[in-house]
Design a protein that fits this description.
two-stranded antiparallel ribbon; 12 strands; 17% helix; membrane; protein transport; LolA/LolB/LppX; signal; cell outer membrane
Length: 204
Amino acid sequence: MTTPSFLRPLLLALALSAAVAGCATTGPRSTAAVAPYSDKTELTGRLTINFSRDGKKESMTGKYDWQQDKDNVNVSLTAPLGQMIAVIKVTPHSATLTQGDKAPPQTAPNVDALTQKALGWTLPVSGLRYWLQGYATDSDGKPFTASPANDTVITRDGWKLEYVDWQDEKAAVPKPKLIYATRIALGQAVDDMNIRIFIDAPDQ
């Protein structure tokens, strides 16, 4: 159907208005960086882990309670209905992981290797200590500080981090809300290991 000639200028004006409005609402992302790193912090949230075990793709969804100070990290993981998945305690000398009331605690020098052995998937606790606050060390050994405009990095220990969402992207000091962490090998994503980390707002 042909548009009548007298309507064409009106339709063109409407299209241009819509285009201008779209540009006005998207705009450049904020370059404001996250707050200075703090040794002491407490966070809660949810995570989903996709991994492979014995050739089968599996996933785990749960809640976490994260507490850290200068020397120690304590992480509690629970299933959506409240059952305990694991309690992880990290000190400068060792890491201990406990599953359920009947299983004895397991201890190892390296917490990431310990989670892989005990759970069948790696929870990169040593990296999360920094990632949750928007900090990392990139593949060249340089410090990375996240902002809405600077939201992706490949870390020195082989993870691709994407800061997908923020508590308030326009805040003077934005805080991460959703992080994707994907295991990287030789520059390629490893399909059987990725984590989505949702961080609760500070007042929750």
